[in-house]
């Protein structure tokens, strides 16, 4: 029986993780659930899974939650609050596996704490890895933690890697990785129309049902840029070894190309419960609840090269990884601020890459050798990006 902590339980990945866990009550016990502020969903999850601990980061929501449970059958749950509490529950002795499913940089410290504590880290929160890079990977190596990718592409790559492969090490005889992308909702939209894209259009992804931030990232293809950096770190590859491939059907979730000419692909329906179940059952397998793939429904699969003019965010991700050091941290932070401004209708869809690039050009790259440097550059980038947005509005 493994103890499970879900960071970001109320989000899209968190909900899917609980769905998978509920299918295997003899294998997984839910120890801790965390949320930022969505206490209604969290309360329902507590009734269904009865964890020992809950973190509600927002303080007033946490008090409200405490009252909500006080006269219920889950009144014995220990309710914690504040961002530091996330680290407490991610490192509890009773916890074996931590699902890192908070969105954005907010997930870094608890995910890193779990890695340092030697937990099995199921990593959905790509921003945490992109912003901290080697620091995160070194923490995993030092503690002997298992780091299993949840991002569907990275999970696919992991499944196509040699037997007994461990993330962070060399993939023996691997020539390159083919990182697939759906191309998002605007793959075929005339480029000049992209300035008028609304948040509603951007979050309506053709194949995947996800949180708002990652949906916008998929539409700009910054998601693929972050994933390219994520793949370099997880699989110890250079950016030149990662080929992004647009594959609109989202049936192949990525491929690994070996030196002998073999290309292994992982396929399945676009349902995040598949990678989640893979990582939770690893090295075994169990039911995920996903529909089996009907290959006859697929009929055809298309592949094309990404157009960097249409998707400048992808170019910026390559620029960031080539600059190295703290530049991926800056890229990620500026993107978070720009996406938030777009969702608030303060900037246009096509302003997102402009804001990010101006921010990257404004901040000098530093060696990313300590967590303090990372957090400092994350903050600097947020301040600069907000200023750039304010200047554009004036
Ligand atoms: P979501 O917006 O649906 O959920 C985010 C979760 O994080 C919620 O539980 C929320 O309470 C929590 N959260 C948000 N801000 C927080 C903060 N400041 N402090 C603490 N908790 C906070 O997002 P999602 O789609 O589930 O994505 C989660 C992560 O997984 C992201 O990093 C995303 O890139 C990655 N991911 C998601 C998918 C997907 O299909 N949804 C696929 C691959 C990777
Ligand atoms: Mg992905």
Oligomer: single chain
* Total DSSP E strands: 11
Task: Give helix and strand order, one letter per element, not per position.
Answer: EHEHEHEHEHEHHEHEHHHEEEHHHHHH
Our estimate of the beta-strand percent is 5-15%
**Chain-averaged pLDDT:** 97
Instruction: List segments where confidence is low: pLDDT < 50 over at least 5 consecutive residues.
Output: none
Shape: globular
Give the structural class: alpha/beta
User: What topology, given as strand order, has the largest sheet?
Assistant: 4-3-2-1-5-6-7
Task: Describe the main β-sheet briefly.
Answer: 7 strands, parallel
Write down the domain tally. 3
Helix fraction, binned, reads: 40-55%
Distance between the termini: 58 Å
Structural summary, described in words:
- The chain folds into three domains: 2-149, NAD(P)-binding Rossmann-like Domain (Rossmann fold, 3-Layer(aba) Sandwich); 152-311, no CATH class; 324-393, Rna Polymerase Sigma Factor, Chain: A, CATH 1.10.1740.
- It has helices spanning 12-22, 39-49, 59-70, 84-90, 108-116, 126-132, 134-143, 152-160, 199-203, 212-220, 222-234, 273-281, 295-298, 312-323, 327-343, 351-362, 371-393, and strands spanning 2-7, 28-35, 53-56, 78-81, 97-100, 120-123, 147-149, 174-181, 242-246, 252-258, 263-267.
- Strand 2, helix 2 and strand 3 (53-56) form a beta-alpha-beta unit.
- The longest helix has 23 residues, at 371-393.
- By secondary structure, it is α/β, with parallel strands linked by helices.
- The mean pLDDT is 97.
- Bound molecules: nicotinamide-adenine-dinucleotide (NAD) and magnesium ion (MG).
- Nicotinamide-adenine-dinucleotide is lined by residues 8-14, 35-36, 38, 57, 101-103, 106, 124-127, 151, 208, 210-211, 214, 272.
């Amino acid at each position: 029986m493994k103890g499970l902590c879900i960071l970001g339980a109320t989000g899209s990945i968190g909900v899917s993780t609980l769905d998978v866990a509920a299918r295997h009550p003899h294998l997984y016990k839910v120890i801790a659930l965390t949320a930022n502020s969505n206490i209604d969903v969290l309360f329902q999850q507590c009734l269904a899974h009865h964890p020992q601990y809950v973190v509600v980061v927002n303080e007033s929501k946490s008090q409200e939650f405490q009252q909500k449970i006080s006269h219920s059958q889950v009144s014995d749950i220990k309710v914690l609050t504040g961002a530091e509490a996330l680290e407490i529950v991610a490192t509890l002795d009773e916890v074996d596996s931590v699902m890192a499913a908070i969105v954005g940089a907010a997930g870094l410290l608890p995910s890193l704490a779990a890695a340092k504590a030697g937990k099995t880290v199921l990593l959905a929160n790509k921003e945490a890895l992109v912003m901290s890079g080697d620091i995160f990977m070194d923490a995993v190596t030092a503690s002997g933690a298992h780091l299993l990718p949840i991002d569907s592409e990275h999970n696919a790559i992991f499944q196509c890697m040699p037997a007994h492969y461990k993330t962070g090490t060399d993939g023996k005889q691997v020539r390159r990785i083919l990182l697939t992308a759906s191309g998002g909702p605007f793959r075929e939209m005339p480029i000049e129309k992209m300035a008028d894209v609304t948040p509603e259009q951007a979050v309506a992804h053709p194949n995947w049902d996800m949180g708002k931030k990652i949906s916008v990232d998929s539409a700009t293809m910054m998601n693929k840029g972050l994933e390219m950096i994520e793949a370099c770190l997880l699989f110890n590859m250079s950016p030149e070894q990662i080929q992004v491939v647009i594959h609109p059907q989202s049936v192949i979730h990525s491929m690994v190309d070996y030196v002998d000419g073999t290309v292994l692909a992982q396929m399945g329906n676009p349902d995040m419960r598949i990678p989640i179940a893979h990582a939770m059952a690893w090295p075994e397998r169990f039911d995920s609840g996903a529909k089996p793939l009907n290959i006859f429904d697929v009929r055809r699969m298309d592949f094309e090269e990404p157009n960097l003019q249409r998707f400048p965010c992808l170019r910026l991700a390559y620029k960031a990884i080539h600059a190295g050091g703290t530049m991926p941290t800056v890229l990620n932070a500026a993107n978070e601020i720009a996406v938030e401004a777009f969702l608030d209708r303060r900037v246009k869809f096509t302003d997102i890459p402009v804001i990010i690039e101006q921010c990257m050009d404004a901040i000098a790259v530093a060696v990313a050798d300590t967590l303090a440097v990372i957090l400092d550059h994350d903050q600097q980038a947020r301040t600069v990006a907000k200023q750039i947005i304010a200047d554009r509005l004036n």
